[in-house]
Amino acid sequence: MKITIIGLGLIGGSIAKTLSRRKDNQIFAFDTNKSSISNAIENKSIKGSIESLDDLKKTEYEDSLLILATPPSITVDILKSLDFLFNSSVTITDTTSAKTSLNKILQKFNFPENIIFSHPVAGSHLSGAVNSIDNLFNGKSTILSYHDSAAPLHVNRVMSLWQELGSKVSVLDTELHDQIFAYSSHLPHVVAYALLNTLKEIEQDNLALFSGGGLGEFLRLVSSSPEMWADIFSTNGKNIAFAINDLVKNLNILQNKIANDPESLKDLLSELKAFKESNY
Amino acid sequence: MKITIIGLGLIGGSIAKTLSRRKDNQIFAFDTNKSSISNAIENKSIKGSIESLDDLKKTEYEDSLLILATPPSITVDILKSLDFLFNSSVTITDTTSAKTSLNKILQKFNFPENIIFSHPVAGSHLSGAVNSIDNLFNGKSTILSYHDSAAPLHVNRVMSLWQELGSKVSVLDTELHDQIFAYSSHLPHVVAYALLNTLKEIEQDNLALFSGGGLGEFLRLVSSSPEMWADIFSTNGKNIAFAINDLVKNLNILQNKIANDPESLKDLLSELKAFKESNY
Predict the structure, then answer these.
(1) What is the average pLDDT across A186-211?
(2) How far apart are the CA of B224 and the nearest CA of chain A, in angstroms?
(3) Hey, which residues does A197 pair with through a beta bridge?
């Protein structure tokens, strides 16, 4: 199968490394960073590069799979520019964690049947091709989102891609995807930034001496790429605003119970411990 | 050296396990749970038990070390009941993470010279003697807090205790201790509970599928003992209330930048990444 990856960063580079282990996969890539391309050719994770997205018009790309492994706002721009492939035999997917802006483009084109969104819930606080690894998606969750008009052939092609990469695949409606991830993934990142900013403001030296291990692990979220997370936050801003409001409400509930109601505080903490243990 | 540990839970049990490796340490313990005592005698981490705190009046306990390894509010009650040992040759320390309530007792007695507070920043989401381990404090931080009136002999005895347990020891004024820990340790726990309550409220099945690994690690804080954390939150409630207010302010700042100012959002995330990398 012919596979083209746009963007050879952590995600695109890791996809290439895994897929290239199968000889019948012919992997091509496009990246503005020429050294990412030449490194990937050298370590045989890709077969070659394409010069421009227009190359995808060639007949040799018919029935191929195109993976956009770029940050959210760039993915929006690229998807727009690929309208010549809409409803073609080329299956198009992405890897971003916010889908609403992408879905708006599809809406204008009455939902082309060959576009299936993907969100691999895998990553690292390290970014770039240099940190890509060949088992990044193994055992991780990947969420597909697509419209009713999507053709089974294209859905299956994307489903097979993630299964080949070792992911556990599930499907969510596009809007529900963005609502859920605003809470389950984007909110924890917002919280890590807000918490760290709060700690920064107390201007105390050697703060790490005064924190247990769990905090350090959590703050690793802040080591992710600021550009990518500013982009994710902005593209899913409305849902994240609701999530922040809900969190603030729950912080105020706790603050109130701490000040006034130790018994009901203990009950709430017990209830949450039980919820944690059956869900995470 | 004769050492008496009040409370053979995770902390007290772990202290006994490490200290008992040295033959010249004679360790005694007091716990209302008789099986904790008999298990500890069986595995030789303690030499015997005391029947009542009044036993500490005996001359054989002169110049010994008394460690209160009980939760915050129980520690307050026990310290009050130990006034017959204030300004004696017995060194008294504790292991709690909030000191203001304890310090109020000392104030009434004009700060006895033999009481040195300890806060080992070590623990586990598992509690109880059954989970105690003999290297719990090794390489971890322990904070001492004491009044100017504390006698060097007693300070040194407590300092040596934690050094023998492998801790990195530092010293903080009692009030500053509680202010800092409200931010560095208690606030992250409040946040973990509030975040989990927010996720619980969206009533979505299989939530863990939609979250990255960092969140699961952080939510482990919620698996700690609800009784202990309700107690810590209540005993340091005023400082924690300030910390929650500061966090809410920072959440609102992020929410506002996400909605209105993507450039300044990116700058803030970059600044926080740099702060993270030089501090945690």
Answers:
(1) 93
(2) 8
(3) none
CATH of A2-172, one of 3.40.50.720, 3.40.50.2000, 3.90.1150.10, 3.40.50.620: 3.40.50.720
Does residue B240 contact residue B182 with C-beta atoms inside 8 Å?
yes
Same fold, A2-172 and A178-279: no
The residue extents of the domains of chain A are 2-172, 178-279
What pTM was estimated for this model as a whole? 0.89
Mean per-residue pLDDT of chain A? 94
Instruction: Closest CB to A198: pick one of B170, B183, B265.
Output: B183
Best of A143, A178, A193 to mutate (most B CBs within 10 Å, chain B): A193
Give burial (CB, 10 Å; 0-12/13-18/19+) of B231. Answer: buried
Q: Which of A197, A122, A198, A205 is nearest to B274 (CA)?
A: A197
Q: What sections of chain A are H helices per DSSP?
A: 10-19, 34-42, 72-81, 100-108, 152-164, 174-181, 187-201, 213-219, 226-235, 237-260, 262-279
Q: What is the pLDDT of residues B123-168, one digit of tens each?
A: 777 777 777 888 899 999 999 999 999 999 999 999 999 999 999 9
For the domain made up of B178-279, the CATH class stated in words is mainly alpha
Kindly list the distances between the CA atom of residue B190 and the CA atoms of A88, A155, B246, in Å, as whole numbers in the listed order. Answer: 52, 42, 13
Q: What is the DSSP string of A136-149?
A: TTTT-EEEEE--TT
Element housing B94 (H / E): strand B91-94
Task: Please report which helix (H) or strand (E) contains residue B237, including its range.
Answer: helix B237-260
Instruction: Closest CB to B204: pick one of A180, A201, A209.
Output: A180
Q: Is the Cβ pair B251, A194 closer than 8 Å?
A: yes
A248 CB neighbours in chain B (<8 A) are 248, 251-252
Summarised one tens digit per residue, pLDDT across range B227-254 is 999 999 999 999 999 999 999 999 999 9
What ipTM describes this predicted complex? 0.89
